[in-house]
Predict the structure.
Amino acid sequence: MSGFLGWVASSGVVQGVIIGLVFAYLTTILILNAVAKAETTVVNGWSAMRRAGRPGTGVLVRAASQKALPVVNVFEEAAYWTTTRDDAGARLNGEHAYRLHFPQAQLPPNDAFWSLTATDTGGYMVGGTTGRSSVGSHSGLVTNADGSVDILLQPHQPSSEATNWLTTPPGRFKLMLRAYLPGTAIVDGDYQVPPVMEVRS
């Protein structure tokens, strides 16, 4: 038996299997990334996979959806958008301040609640001096005089109303907006999340 194992080890069979498995893994990742990209809709810099979690989409779409958003609900139950870029296409970075401006009556329509979360690029939530890692429909956001709502995204507390402030992590980060039991405008694809704008002093 030991002679057979020695022959296998010296024959290159083990190395061939390992190399084959590595190529198979990398090929799978490339295929799933391509499928996810084809399934992703991008509007104002926000990405959404509207068919994520939906049965009957095929094994590749389901696998790509799980890779991008593990344990995700169907879009009709929970709508998810993510972004890593501002309105100019620059990557979001904690060294800058940003503003997310929702015009009057344009907060994400829903029959449950919505939330906006800032995470690092690995998807880990961060909490700042506010003690919260997200803001949303239960945060008591302050409305502007014209009925619009501005959410400030920056690492340090702003001098203005802090209720509308979401702490951002240092370095590059991403945002996730979620609407649970999304309204008809979201489900039909008519609703658009506004772009993230850098606040320049």
Q: What stands out?
A: The mean pLDDT is 79. The radius of gyration is 22 Å. Strands lie at 41-43, 46-48, 78-83, 97-102, 110-120, 134-136, 149-154, 165-167, 173-182, 196-199.
